[in-house]
Design goal:
This protein has 2 helices and no strands. By secondary structure, the chain is mainly α. The longest helix is centred in the N-terminal third of the chain and has 60 residues. The model has no long low-confidence stretch (mean pLDDT 79).
Length: 97
C-alpha cells in the first residue's frame, strides 16, 4: 500500500504542476492579446478621429479667411501619425519582439 500512496502523491503533484503551467501560459497569452487589442482599438480610434478632423477641416475650409482649417489638418496629421504608431506596434507586441 505504501507504493500506491507514493504513486498517487506523485501523480497528484504532476497534475498540479501541469495545471499551473497551463494556466500560466493561458494568462500570458490572454494578457498579450488584451494588450494588442487595446493598442489596435486606440489606433483605430485615432484613425477615426483623424478622418473626422479631415472632414471638419474640409467644411471649415469652405468658409474662407478663417484659418482654422489648417489647425484641424495639423491635428488630423498628428492623429494619423499616432494611429500609425499604434497600428505598427500592436502586432510587434503580440509577436513578442
Amino acid at each position: 500500500m505504501k507504493f500506491l500512496d507514493v504513486i498517487t502523491l506523485f501523480l497528484a503533484t504532476a497534475c498540479r504542476a501541469g495545471s499551473a503551467a497551463f494556466l500560466s501560459v493561458v494568462a500570458k497569452t490572454v494578457r498579450k492579446m488584451c494588450l494588442m487589442v487595446g493598442l489596435l482599438v486606440v489606433g483605430l480610434a485615432l484613425l477615426l478621429g483623424a478622418m473626422g478632423l479631415m472632414i471638419a477641416a474640409l467644411f471649415i475650409g469652405l468658409t474662407p479667411y478663417l484659418g482654422a482649417h489648417w489647425a484641424a489638418m495639423i491635428a488630423a496629421g498628428a492623429s494619423l501619425a499616432g494611429s500609425c504608431i499604434f497600428l505598427v506596434i500592436a502586432p510587434k507586441v503580440f509577436k513578442g519582439r
